[in-house]
Design the sequence.
Protein backbone atom coordinates (compact mmCIF):
# COMPACT_ATOMS: atom_id res chain seq x y z
CA UNK A 1 0.00 0.00 0.00
CA UNK A 2 2.95 2.35 0.57
CA UNK A 3 4.37 1.68 -2.91
CA UNK A 4 3.74 4.09 -5.82
CA UNK A 5 1.38 3.00 -8.56
CA UNK A 6 2.99 1.29 -11.55
CA UNK A 7 1.89 4.04 -13.94
CA UNK A 8 3.41 6.85 -11.84
CA UNK A 9 7.11 7.41 -12.45
CA UNK A 10 9.27 9.79 -10.41
CA UNK A 11 10.49 12.73 -12.51
CA UNK A 12 13.88 12.14 -14.06
CA UNK A 13 16.61 14.78 -13.58
CA UNK A 14 16.74 15.46 -17.32
CA UNK A 15 13.02 16.00 -17.77
CA UNK A 16 11.66 19.50 -17.22
CA UNK A 17 9.28 19.99 -14.35
CA UNK A 18 6.82 22.72 -13.52
CA UNK A 19 8.88 23.80 -10.50
CA UNK A 20 12.04 24.42 -12.58
CA UNK A 21 13.67 27.80 -11.80
CA UNK A 22 14.73 28.27 -15.45
CA UNK A 23 11.94 29.67 -17.60
CA UNK A 24 13.73 30.28 -20.90
CA UNK A 25 16.38 28.47 -22.91
CA UNK A 26 19.59 27.76 -21.00
CA UNK A 27 22.04 28.01 -23.90
CA UNK A 28 20.77 30.71 -26.21
CA UNK A 29 22.86 31.61 -29.25
CA UNK A 30 23.01 35.30 -30.06
CA UNK A 31 22.16 36.42 -33.57
CA UNK A 32 24.24 39.57 -33.05
CA UNK A 33 27.75 38.89 -34.47
CA UNK A 34 29.35 41.53 -32.23
CA UNK A 35 27.95 39.87 -29.13
CA UNK A 36 28.91 36.35 -30.24
CA UNK A 37 32.56 37.36 -30.79
CA UNK A 38 32.83 39.08 -27.41
CA UNK A 39 34.98 36.38 -25.81
CA UNK A 40 37.22 35.91 -28.84
CA UNK A 41 38.71 39.39 -28.94
CA UNK A 42 41.57 40.82 -26.92
CA UNK A 43 40.85 43.49 -24.32
CA UNK A 44 40.62 47.19 -25.03
CA UNK A 45 43.41 49.75 -25.08
CA UNK A 46 45.91 49.95 -22.26
CA UNK A 47 48.91 48.13 -20.85
CA UNK A 48 49.31 44.52 -21.99
CA UNK A 49 50.30 41.55 -19.84
CA UNK A 50 53.68 39.99 -20.60
CA UNK A 51 53.78 36.43 -21.92
CA UNK A 52 54.88 34.07 -19.15
CA UNK A 53 57.10 32.10 -21.56
CA UNK A 54 58.91 34.70 -23.68
CA UNK A 55 58.10 38.06 -22.07
CA UNK A 56 56.56 39.60 -25.20
CA UNK A 57 53.32 41.58 -24.80
CA UNK A 58 50.23 39.39 -24.99
CA UNK A 59 46.77 40.24 -26.30
CA UNK A 60 45.40 40.45 -22.76
CA UNK A 61 45.20 43.44 -20.41
CA UNK A 62 47.82 43.64 -17.66
CA UNK A 63 45.20 42.99 -14.97
CA UNK A 64 43.90 39.78 -16.63
CA UNK A 65 43.94 36.77 -14.28
CA UNK A 66 45.90 33.63 -15.10
CA UNK A 67 49.09 33.04 -17.08
CA UNK A 68 48.81 34.96 -20.36
CA UNK A 69 50.63 33.80 -23.46
CA UNK A 70 51.47 35.80 -26.58
CA UNK A 71 49.96 34.56 -29.88
CA UNK A 72 53.21 32.82 -30.92
CA UNK A 73 53.57 30.90 -27.65
CA UNK A 74 49.85 30.05 -27.68
CA UNK A 75 50.29 28.54 -31.16
CA UNK A 76 53.42 26.62 -30.11
CA UNK A 77 51.75 25.26 -26.97
CA UNK A 78 48.77 24.10 -29.04
CA UNK A 79 51.11 22.30 -31.47
CA UNK A 80 52.93 20.59 -28.60
CA UNK A 81 49.67 19.46 -27.02
CA UNK A 82 48.30 18.17 -30.34
CA UNK A 83 51.43 16.15 -31.09
CA UNK A 84 52.01 14.81 -27.59
CA UNK A 85 50.19 11.74 -28.07
Sequence:
Amino acid sequence: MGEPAADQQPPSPSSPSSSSPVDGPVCEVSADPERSLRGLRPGGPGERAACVLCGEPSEYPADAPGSPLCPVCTWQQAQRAACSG
